[in-house]
C-alpha cells in the first residue's frame, strides 16, 4: 500500500493524444513522451528552447484554458492532455529583399491579411516566448518595421500564433520580413565583419584552412578538444 | 498647457503625416499638448455594422482602455478625452462607446479581456466606459474657440479661395457626427477665422469613394471629378479636408479623373491644419507641404498668394 502511495506521488498522469500514461514528475513534456515510448522524427529539434520545432498545445483536466508550450521547456503536470503541432501550414510569399524598400506599404503588399487583425490578442496568448505578437502585427500594419523587428526579436517561428489567429494571419513570417528589412536598411554594419571578410578574400587564412583539410580525423579531434575557447 | 491623450492611427503616421505634423504643432500653439497613447493599435478602420460579432469591435475598445491606463499610470490627470485627427479613427472610437452602452456587450467584452492580464502586453483591466473620443475639429470649435484661433493668426489667408470638403465619417450617422450632417459649418468657420475666402462647395458632404480606391479606381475617379468640378466652377483654388482617405481620393485620384474628363483642372488639396499652420506663421517644416505626400503641389498657390 505504502509503495503504491509513493509511486502515485512520484508519477503524474498525462494523456498523449488522448491516451493515458504515468510518467515521473519533473520531466519535460518531450522527455515524458519519450519515457512513454514515443520516438521523435518531427516535433523535436534543439531540445534547448531555441529552434521552435516542438510546438505543443495542452489542457489540464478541470481547467478550460488552452495552453501553448515548447515540449522541451514545459514540465509535465498531473492531468495534462497533450498534443503536438509538428508543422504549421503557412503562407510565405516570395520576395527579393534587394528589390524591396522599407516603405509603409511593404507589409500590406506581401501580407494584405494583416489588415484583418481585430486586435483580439489571441496570438499573444499563444506565444510560448511571451512576445507581444499582436502589437508587432499592429506595428506592421502601420509600416513600423523597426518596432516589429524589436518586438519580435526572440521569435523562434514555432507557428503557434498562426494556428490561433482568427484573421488567419501568419505573424512570424511578417516578423521575419521586418527583421530582414531592419537588418538591411537600419542596423549599422559591423566594421569588424567587413574587415574580416577582406582578410578572408585576400587569402590570409588559406594556408591554415588547407592545413586543417589535410589533417586526419584523429588529429583533427585532438586539435578540436584542445582548442582555445573564447572568454565570455 | 493642457495635456490630452492623442490617438494617431495608421494614416497620419504614414501617408497623411502632413496632417499630424501640422495638427500637433498648431495644437501646441493653442495651448494643447497632444500626448500620444504609449501603446495603440489600428482603430478598426470601419465601424463594424454587425452588432453580434463582438470580436470585430475589440480594436477601438482596446484603444479606449489604453486611454484609461494613461490616467492610471499618471501620464495624464483625470483626462477621459482622447483626440484624433483622422475621421475614420474618430468614428470607430466614438462608435465603440455607443456600442458598449449595452451592458451585456460590455460585460462580454470585458470577460473576454479578463485573461489578458496573464500575458505579456495584455491589458490589465477591462474597459470601465466613459472615455470620450473627440475629433480635433470639435476641440477647435468647443475648447479653443474661433476668436482664439483668429488671435493666433500672423499671416491672414486673405484672398485665398478655399472650398471645404467633409466627407461622411465625421458627420454621419447623427449620433456620431460632430456637426449638422446636412449643413455642417465647422470647417467654414475655422477657415473664416483664418481670414480665407470660403467658396460654396455643394458636394462637401458627398462620398469620396472610400476604399474603392484600391481596386475600383474608375468609381473613385468619377466621384473625384464630381466632387472637384463644382467647387472649381465656383472659383475655389484649394480644397480643404479633414479625412486622410478623402484627401487621398480627392488629390491622388485627380490623375485618373483627368483622364476620364479633360475639363478638370488640377487643384491642390490640403488639410485644414496645414492652412492653420500657414496662417499661424509656423515654421515651414510644420506645414507638411515638403514631404512628397501631395499629388498636386500646393506650394505654387501659396507662393502666388504670398504665403510661402
What does this structure look like?
The complex is a heterodimer of chains A (about 230) and B (about 300). Chain A has about 230 residues and is α+β, with helices and mostly antiparallel strands. Chain A has two domains: about 5-85, Ubiquitin-like (UB roll) (Roll), CATH 3.10.20.740; about 90-220, Fumarate Reductase Iron-sulfur Protein, Chain B, domain 2. Chain A is built from eleven helices and five strands. Chain A has a five-stranded mixed β-sheet. Chain B is an alpha/beta fold and about 300 residues long. Chain B has helices at about 15-30, 60-70, 85-100, 105-115, 135-145, 145-150, 185-195, 210-215, 215-235, 245-250, 255-260, 270-280, 300-305, and strands at about 1-5, 30-35, 80-85, 130-135, 160-165, 195-200, 240, 270. The interface between A and B is medium-sized, with 22 and 23 residues.
What features would you highlight for this structure?
A: 232 residues, alpha+beta, Ubiquitin-like (UB roll), Fumarate Reductase Iron-sulfur Protein, Chain B, domain 2, 2 domains, 5 strands, 39% helix, B: 308 residues, alpha/beta
Helix content of chain A: 25-40%
Number of strands of chain A: 5
- SS-based class of chain B: alpha/beta
Poorly predicted ranges of chain B:
none
User: From N to C, what is the helix and strand string of chain A?
Assistant: HEEHEEEHHHHHHHHH
Give the tally of structural domains of chain A: 2
What average pLDDT do the residues of chain B reach? Answer: 95
Percent in helix of chain B:
40-55%
In round numbers, the mean pLDDT of chain A is 93
Biggest interface between protein chains, with counts per chain? A-B, 22 and 23 residues
Would you kindly provide a brief summary of this structure?
The complex is a heterodimer of chains A (232) and B (308). With 232 residues, chain A is an alpha+beta fold.
Amino acid at each position: 500500500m505504502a509503495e503504491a502511495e509513493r509511486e502515485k506521488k512520484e508519477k503524474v498522469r498525462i494523456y498523449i493524444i488522448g491516451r493515458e500514461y504515468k510518467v515521473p514528475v519533473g520531466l519535460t513534456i518531450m522527455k515524458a513522451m519519450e519515457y512513454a515510448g514515443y520516438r521523435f522524427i518531427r516535433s523535436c529539434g534543439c531540445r534547448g528552447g531555441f529552434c521552435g520545432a516542438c510546438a505543443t498545445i495542452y489542457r489540464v483536466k478541470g481547467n478550460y484554458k488552452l495552453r501553448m508550450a515548447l515540449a522541451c521547456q514545459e514540465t509535465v503536470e498531473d492531468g495534462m492532455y497533450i498534443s503536438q503541432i509538428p508543422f504549421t501550414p503557412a503562407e510565405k510569399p516570395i520576395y527579393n529583399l534587394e528589390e524591396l524598400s522599407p516603405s509603409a506599404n511593404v507589409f500590406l503588399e506581401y501580407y494584405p491579411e494583416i489588415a484583418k487583425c481585430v486586435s483580439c490578442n489571441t496570438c499573444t496568448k499563444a506565444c510560448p516566448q511571451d512576445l507581444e505578437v499582436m502589437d508587432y502585427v499592429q506595428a506592421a500594419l502601420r509600416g513600423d518595421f523597426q518596432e516589429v523587428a524589436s518586438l519580435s526579436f526572440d521569435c523562434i517561428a514555432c507557428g503557434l500564433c498562426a494556428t490561433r489567429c482568427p484573421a488567419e494571419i501568419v505573424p512570424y513570417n511578417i516578423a521575419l520580413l521586418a527583421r530582414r528589412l531592419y537588418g538591411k536598411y537600419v542596423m549599422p554594419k559591423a566594421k569588424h565583419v567587413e574587415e574580416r571578410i577582406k582578410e578572408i578574400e585576400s587569402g590570409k587564412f588559406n594556408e591554415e584552412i588547407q592545413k586543417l583539410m589535410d589533417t586526419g580525423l584523429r588529429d583533427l579531434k585532438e586539435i578540436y578538444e584542445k582548442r582555445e575557447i573564447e572568454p565570455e | 498647457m493642457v495635456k490630452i491623450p492623442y490617438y494617431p492611427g495608421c494614416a497620419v503616421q504614414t501617408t497623411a503625416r502632413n496632417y499630424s505634423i501640422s495638427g500637433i504643432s498648431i495644437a501646441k500653439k493653442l495651448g494643447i499638448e497632444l500626448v500620444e497613447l504609449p501603446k495603440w493599435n489600428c482603430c478598426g478602420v470601419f465601424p463594424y455594422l454587425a452588432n453580434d460579432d463582438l470580436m470585430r469591435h475589440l480594436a477601438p475598445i482596446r484603444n479606449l482602455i489604453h486611454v484609461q491606463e494613461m490616467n492610471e499610470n499618471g501620464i495624464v490627470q483625470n483626462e477621459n478625452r482622447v483626440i484624433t485627427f483622422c475621421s475614420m479613427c474618430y468614428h470607430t472610437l466614438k462608435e465603440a462607446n455607443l456600442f458598449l452602452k449595452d451592458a451585456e456587450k460590455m460585460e462580454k467584452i470585458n470577460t473576454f479581456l479578463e485573461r489578458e492580464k496573464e500575458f505579456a502586453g495584455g491589458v490589465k483591466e477591462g474597459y470601465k466606459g466613459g472615455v470620450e473620443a473627440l475629433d480635433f475639429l470639435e476641440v477647435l470649435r468647443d475648447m479653443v474657440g474661433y476668436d482664439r484661433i483668429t488671435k493666433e493668426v500672423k499671416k491672414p489667408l486673405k484672398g485665398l479661395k478655399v472650398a471645404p470638403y467633409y466627407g461622411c465619417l465625421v458627420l454621419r450617422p447623427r449620433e456620431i457626427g460632430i456637426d449638422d450632417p446636412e449643413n455642417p459649418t465647422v470647417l467654414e468657420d475655422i477657415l473664416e477665422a483664418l481670414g480665407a475666402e470660403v467658396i460654396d462647395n455643394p458636394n462637401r458632404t458627398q462620398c469620396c469613394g472610400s476604399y474603392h480606391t484600391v481596386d475600383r479606381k474608375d468609381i473613385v475617379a468619377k466621384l473625384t471629378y464630381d466632387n472637384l468640378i463644382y467647387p472649381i466652377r465656383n472659383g475655389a483654388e484649394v480644397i480643404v479636408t479633414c479625412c486622410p482617405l478623402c484627401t487621398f481620393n480627392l488629390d491622388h485620384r485627380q490623375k485618373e479623373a483627368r483622364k476620364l474628363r479633360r475639363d478638370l483642372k488640377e487643384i491642390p488639396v490640403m488639410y485644414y491644419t496645414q492652412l492653420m499652420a500657414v496662417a499661424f506663421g509656423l515654421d515651414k517644416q510644420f506645414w507638411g507641404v515638403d514631404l512628397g505626400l501631395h499629388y498636386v503641389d500646393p506650394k505654387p498657390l501659396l507662393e502666388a498668394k504670398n504665403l510661402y
